[in-house]
Design a protein that fits this description.
By secondary structure, the chain is of the alpha/beta class. The protein contains 17 helices and 14 strands. Strands 3-2-1-4-5-6 form a six-stranded parallel sheet, sandwiched between helices. Strands 11-10-9-12-13-14 form a six-stranded parallel sheet. Strands 7-8 form a two-stranded parallel sheet. α13 links the parallel β9 and β10. It is globular, with a radius of gyration of 23 Å. Bound molecules: nicotinamide-adenine-dinucleotide. Nicotinamide-adenine-dinucleotide (NAD) binds next to α1 and α5.
Length: about 425
């Protein structure tokens, strides 16, 4: 199958590389010439474990190519995927669909034969109808079927997720288009990944409902975590105790500094806008969004409390800055709110991240970036574990205690048992259980 992937970001690049690994011929297209030039030289524009090898193997095999020329990429393609960004629209939180609609128009102009146009970007209900209208109006003589195929991969585990998905959702009512999609994903459903066919609008909504549910689960345990701190319970045990119930499940029950990243914040907001527009309010999701926003900043206040209530003139080292480990993605990372809260309280902030420094730097004015967690913490008044990268899971806590000006360790990911932290000579602060002492 000949596939064009429009948009070569986190989703487009991983999807395109994985499709080529299944044996399809894939051309990845992006407007960003820097990205395409880097990819042609074998340099990955994002950090994603295993991606460089996957890309190299398939480029060498002649199945994967990169171009900025959409017309050339789309020529002869039987399926054209739209994987461009759908960020929050400034001001109102609606999904900004200008990239999707722009791509649809360009695709329509470039199509020379019948093709399935597949929206992989996360888009609000009804977007497929609009994409179809744009294509019909731009190229009235071209046969094109518009299908929804939302993507569920997680950054940091994207290749594994793409190749071993829990399910593949395909939204179309058209038998021919369904057959093309079946062919594209054949290697996966031979591996027993369920291929779920639904209506197009249903597929679009499944993606938002899934993200809103996961965001709700995280926010639920985060609020339970706050309660644990007050009543003297332990949130990790509560999570284990409820997660062992099959009806609940153990995943996404890890209390932390609030969800961030490129999807949950913008997708929950966009879903609320869709609900509002259709006068079907989603009050649970409304609360989730508010609670999560407040939580990210509250984490900054927690650090100030750990410093005795006054951060003015103090130095705080943030260990891990990306919204989660194994990605360099800084979009809506909780660290951004924490930095802001600390700077507002008069603290100087230092940061360390194994992969995200380059992305973090322009977003965090005034922060000093160091190339090791120990250098970041040396002379600091508090060290805060924000993102649980592997290299931060086995810190030499004694070394930290010796090098810091004050031995304050704030663990926002519950990586270290408080006893271990204190044995090393640090004072433990964290979430989900009462402070010790
Ligand atoms: N990042 C994730 O983990 C993830 C997971 C599931 C779904 N999604 C969804 O997938 C979509 C893409 O997300 P992303 O994180 O990959 O975005 P991204 O910002 O990393 O990449 C989007 C790319 O599209 C390119 N682009 C925009 N318009 C174009 C056009 N007309 N022609 C060619 N290229 C164009 C941009 O230059 C950019 O490189 C979004 O809707 C997102 O919500 C993301």
């Amino acid at each position: 199958m000949r596939i064009a992937m429009i948009g070569t970001g986190y989703v487009g690049l991983v999807s395109g590389a994985c499709f080529s690994d299944f044996g399809h011929d894939v051309v990845c297209v992006d407007k960003d010439s820097g990205k395409i030039e880097a990819l042609r030289q074998g340099k990955m524009p994002i950090f994603e474990p295993g991606l460089d090898k996957l890309v190299e193997r398939n480029v060498q095999g002649g199945r994967l190519a990169f171009t900025t020329d959409l017309e050339q990429g789309v020529a002869g393609a039987e399926a054209v995927f739209i994987a461009v960004g759908t960020p929050s629209r400034r001001g109102d939180g609606h999904a900004d669909l200008s990239y999707v609609f722009g791509a649809a128009e360009e695709i329509a102009r470039a199509l020379r034969g019948p093709a399935v146009v597949v929206t992989k970007s996360t888009v609000p209900v009804g977007t497929g109808d609009e994409v179809e209208r744009i294509i019909r109006e731009t190229a009235p003589d071209t046969r094109a079927w518009v299908v929804s195929n939302p993507e569920f991969l997680r950054e940091g585990a994207a290749i594994e997720d793409f190749k071993r998905p829990d399910r593949i959702v395909v939204g179309t009512d058209d038998a021919e288009a369904a057959e093309v999609m079946r062919e594209i994903y054949r290697p996966l459903y031979l591996n027993k990944a369920p291929l779920l066919f639904t209506g197009r609008r249903t597929a679009e909504l499944i993606k938002y409902a899934a993200n809103a549910f996961l965001a709700t689960k995280i926010t639920f345990i985060n609020e339970i975590s706050d309660l644990c701190e007050i009543v003297g319970a332990d949130v990790q045990d509560v999570a284990r105790g409820i997660g062992l119930d099959n009806r609940i499940g153990a995943k996404f029950l890890h209390a932390g500094p609030g969800y961030g990243g490129s999807c949950f914040p913008k997708d929950t907001l966009a879903l609320l806008k869709t609900a509002e527009d259709h006068q079907a309010p989603l009050r649970i999701v409304e609360s989730v969004v508010k609670v999560n926003e407040a939580r990210k900043r509250a984490m900054g206040r927690k650090v100030v409390q750990a410093l005795g209530g006054d951060a003015r003139g103090r130095t705080v080292a943030l260990l891990g800055l990306t919204f989660k480990p194994n990605t360099d993605d800084m979009r809506d990372a909780p660290s951004l709110s924490i930095v802001q809260a600390l700077q507002d309280a008069g603290a100087s902030v230092r940061g360390y991240d194994p992969e995200g420094t380059e992305q973090a730097r322009p977003l965090m004015p005034g922060v000093e970036f160091l190339d090791s967690p120990y250098r970041a913490a040396a002379g600091a008044d508090a060290a805060v574990l924000v993102t649980e990268w592997d290299v931060l899971r086995a810190l030499d806590l004694r070394r930290l205690a010796q090098d810091m000006a004050q031995p304050v360790f704030v663990d926002l990911r519950s990586v270290y048992p408080p006893e271990e932290v204190e044995e090393a000579g640090l004072r433990w602060f964290g979430i989900g259980r009462a402070p010790r002492g």
